[in-house]
Specification:
Elements: H1 16-25, H2 29-44
């Protein structure tokens, strides 16, 4: 269940990058991988694997 949380901070003292890093470091590796997989499924759809793509280019002589 998701709980609502409200934090009030002074914008001059707020470091969102550090707070985000601390949050994700507090999670287990399994939780982090599950979150990345969840975000990947939201963006790419519910395919089991990421699609592979390849591009062939011709080099010019010279």
């Amino acid at each position: 269940m998701i709980e609502k949380v409200v934090n009030k901070r002074n914008l001059k003292d707020f470091s969102s990058i550090r707070e985000d890093l601390d949050y994700w470091l507090s999670k287990t590796p399994d939780e982090r991988v599950a979150t990345v997989d969840y975000l990947r499924r939201q963006y790419h759809g519910s395919t089991a694997r990421l699609q592979r793509s390849a591009r062939v280019t011709q080099r010019t002589q010279g």
